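Researcher: For the annotation table, I need structure tokens for PhoH-like ATPase. Please keep the output clean. Sequence:
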Amino acid sequence: MVRQDIHGKRLFVLDTNVLMHDPAALFRFQEHDVFLPMVVLEELDKAKKGVSEVARNVRQVSRFIDALMAGADHDRIAQGLPLNGAHMEESGGGRLLFQTRALTSPLPASLPGHTPDHTILGIALALQGERPETTVTLVSKDINLRIKAAVLGIHAEDYYNDQVLDDVDLLYRGTFELPADFPAGHQLETWLEGGHTFQRITGPLVAQWHPNQCLYREDDPDFMALVRHREHTTALVETARDHTGTQHPVWGIQARNREQNFALNLLMDPAVDFVSLVGTAGTGKTLLALAAGLAQTLEDNRYREIIMTRVTVPVGEDIGFLPGTEEEKMTPWMGALMDNLEVLTPSETGGDWGRAATQDLIGGRIKIRSLNFMRGRTFLDRFIILDEAQNLTSKQMKTLITRAGPGTKVVCLGNVGQIDTPYLTETTSGLTYVVDRFKAWPHGGHVLLQRGERSRLADFAAEFL
């Protein structure tokens, strides 16, 4: 968490949203002290009720604080409770300090009102005056509060511990471009097995590869392969199946570019239990996942049904209370599902009756579920599609993926450039988190879809608007 540009022991004043975001934030500041204003405890108390993720996090914070205070008297609390690493490995040496007395510092007239944010700013200013030898830092996920702090001369930082990468451009892409002179400097052994072409490659480039990574050559569009196993500088590589032509469509869908072909290879591979597809609007994420799910559920009987879900974060105004069952409540959020099903079920024969029968058949094997009711469940032999996954935190993502039982495949779709959840960024999104954590797992795969294939109008708008 601690940036290295400031040396010496520091005092971190935590904003409420930091603890709501990460309950273990108390233990993430290494040897430095953590200060909790009384207004933060008040805000935590107001947010503790409910079944939302924020309410659960707040209750966990309360349990952490209660455990730290066990057996402590007033004098010990005033001196600070040791953060001795009882709950988190990162902590060590720091103390947890509470506001045990009034701390006042005159705020400028340009900050009218008595909001909790202004109270926290006043406390930070008072601490700066009392401890001139200590760097007092306000930690908040609220950008505007950090701006106000900077204006008042208070050192402020974002909470960095949940940041997966320093820059989203460093995110694993799932593909690797081979140089034009490949395989120069490498040893190759090729053979056929079960109708598939395999190669054992040994050389320096192999050390940079990951399991199920997609290999290609820009000068040879026909060469597409997948890394099946890697050990040190030796890898087992399998030639990818070509889904771009008419010979191997998936539920009538053909890949329109190299990345889509790689995505279909991973989606149709029973040995790959987790697939993440990241791309902008129109790159075909939902269509490819649904086509692969329908093909393996209805044609191959590999899965019992498709479960589709997404986080319900509205882009505009909330539409309010929705009557009906769980599936009916989720239907307005599943417009992408309905749009893609129309593409995947163009029943031209049989008229209206044929189309209705086809939709009933497919609709019976696709279930729409809400994320709010996922805790405690176990899904067996299901094809789970998690749409808009960029709006989930890393903790929520862990909760969902651990619902998968034997024979279940999880597909996460999203665009890290389109995050609607407050306090989440491209580098802290749960989608970024799982892409980075699963890249070395032999049963996981990832592809970054780059080219939009929706329409020429959509492509032009995406590039120039």
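Researcher: And a one-line annotation?
Model: Residues 86-91, 313-319 have pLDDT under 50 and may be disordered.
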